[in-house]
Amino acid sequence: PVLIFATHNPHKLQEVQSVLPASIRLLSLQDVGYKENIPEPYDTLEENSRVKALTIYEALQRDCFAEDSGLEVPALNGAPGARSARFAGDHASDAENLAMLLSRMEGISRREARFRTVITLIWQGKFHQVEGICEGTIATAPRGKGGFGYDPVFIPEGSQQTFAEMSLDEKNQFSHRAKAIRAFCDLVYRLTAE
Ligand code: ITT
Ligand code: NA
């Protein structure tokens, strides 16, 4: 199958490509010439993921999927969650969002957190969702240069390293996105076998 991945984030595209088998062909928004912004106006990953896929489906009428990801910190009542990309303001950079997280976590000893990815596939006009979760903790200072977003402060359960200290293959052994993509592959195989 050929699927359009509704994202403007090049890191996500690279991570998804690194997990998907060659039998599932991806087209990026760049490949299909779609340049507009994709709104994500809701408070949940489920709704934002759905509306991102729907936006591309309505524009192009082709099989497509989107993902919405967020970092959920219980000590911050689940923030930044669906606002992870805008934690420090509407056009905040990854560095500004990360600095905001560390400042909100200052003096807080309860540092557990989880990353969650929700993927919405629109296949032959029907909606399907899968998710992936990675439990971990928030470091007190950033470490490492790899990855993107909050990777320099997120330490997944089962490792001592932050995501930013890992290679992409190492991050894929733990990450929310890799787990979601594996569930997504199973879903796509099931649908194409029908
Ligand atoms: P889209 O075009 O797909 O919407 P985006 O960057 O706006 O790309 P989201 O709306 O899903 O993506 O925002 C998620 C934010 O959460 C993202 O900007 C990162 O700061 C953070 N994030 C998501 N996945 C991450 C990961 O694997 N590692 C670190 N931070 C991550
Ligand atoms: Na976004």
UniProtKB/TrEMBL annotation:
Binds 1 Mg(2+) ion per subunit. One of its GO terms (biological process) is purine nucleoside triphosphate catabolic process. Substrate binds at residues 7-12, 69, 148-151, 171, 176-177. It is an enzyme of class 3 (hydrolase). Its cofactor is Mg(2+). Signal peptide: none annotated. One of its GO terms (molecular function) is ITP diphosphatase activity. Keywords: Hydrolase, Magnesium, Metal-binding, Nucleotide metabolism, Nucleotide-binding. Transmembrane segments: none annotated. It catalyses: XTP + H2O = XMP + diphosphate + H(+); ITP + H2O = IMP + diphosphate + H(+); dITP + H2O = dIMP + diphosphate + H(+). GO terms for cellular component: cytosol. Mg(2+) binds at residue 68. The active site is at residue 68. Belongs to the HAM1 NTPase family. HAMAP family: Non_canon_purine_NTPase. Pyrophosphatase that catalyzes the hydrolysis of nucleoside triphosphates to their monophosphate derivatives, with a high preference for the non-canonical purine nucleotides XTP (xanthosine triphosphate), dITP (deoxyinosine triphosphate) and ITP. Seems to function as a house-cleaning enzyme that removes non-canonical purine nucleotides from the nucleotide pool, thus preventing their incorporation into DNA/RNA and avoiding chromosomal lesions. Homodimer. This is dITP/XTP pyrophosphatase. It comes from Thermoflavifilum aggregans. The lineage of its organism: Bacteria, Pseudomonadati, Bacteroidota, Chitinophagia, Chitinophagales.
